[in-house]
Design goal:
Elements lengths: L3 H4 L13 H10 L8 E8 L11 E5 L10 E4 L2 H10 L3 E3 L1 H8 L7 E4 L4 H4 L3 H4 L17 H10 L1 E5 L5 E8 L4 H19 L9 E8 L5 E3 L6
Parallel strand pairs: 3-4, 3-5
Antiparallel strand pairs: 1-7, 1-8, 2-6, 8-9
Helix pairs in contact: 3-7
Length: 229
């Protein structure tokens, strides 16, 4: 069932010609007719020339304009690193006791960072953390001895780029309340991250076939990519 609010939004927007993101943002924002500050979301469709189950894209990107979301960061570290984690702004800091809490199902955080030496113990909790996408990973910068940098980046606007089993990539680049310039800079950071990851993959032709943008409760528009991905 579509609400009265949704029925007032433009129809068949996916049939419109693709446009550059700076031309679409005004339409995206005008479609944000809910009472909350909707997210502005991107969706990339992987080229169907690729075997979707063979594409394993997973990385992070630091959005220069932030995400507009509050991120609860937890750190598993040795006692000697605990003050560094707390001073950096980590919400939860702990060692062996904290690992036991995680083991029992206490997952009241959005991102988990771990030092290299503690990762040996934490790696045994793959069945608990893995399905939630919370397992620290060196490639994502969440297994590190530079706790301060990792916490600062997580708090400042770091988001994960990851394809799902159907070959789609989805992520948020900010909020409706963001200035257009901030959203565009965040979008460009994502494009640059995808370009970098493409060079690390063995693929046929382009990685991305189509790109779309929408708001949380809005309708979708096609983005015209300025360069092949």
């Amino acid at each position: 069932m579509r609400s009265k609010r949704f029925k007032k939004l433009p129809e068949k927007t996916k049939e419109l010609p693709s446009e550059k993101i700076d031309k679409i943002l005004s339409s995206i924002k005008s479609n944000c007719t809910t009472r909350f500050d909707e997210s502005v979301d991107l969706s990339f469709r992987i080229n169907n020339k690729q075997k979707k189950n063979e594409i394993n894209l997973r990385t992070v990107v630091n959005l220069p304009g932030g995400t507009g979301k509050s991120v609860k960061v937890a750190v598993v570290c040795e006692e000697a690193k605990s003050n560094e984690a707390k001073d950096a702004g980590a919400d939860i800091v702990g060692g062996d006791d904290f690992i036991e809490k995680i083991k029992s199902g206490e997952l009241n955080f959005d991102k988990l960072i771990c030092t290299s030496s503690m990762m040996i113990k934490l790696s045994k909790l793959g069945k608990v953390l893995g399905p939630k996408g919370l397992m620290p990973n060196p490639k994502l910068g969440t297994v590190t001895n530079d706790i301060k940098k990792a916490v600062n980046e997580a708090k400042a606007g770091q988001v994960e780029i990851r394809n799902d089993k159907d070959g789609n990539i989805g992520l948020s680049i900010g909020k409706k309340s963001f200035d257009d310039d901030k959203l565009i800079k965040n979008y460009q950071a994502v494009i640059e991250a995808l370009e970098k990851e493409k060079s690390n993959l063995t693929i046929k032709g382009d990685l991305v076939s189509q790109a779309f943008i929408t708001s949380t409760m809005g309708v979708s528009y096609k983005i015209k990519l300025e360069k092949s991905l």
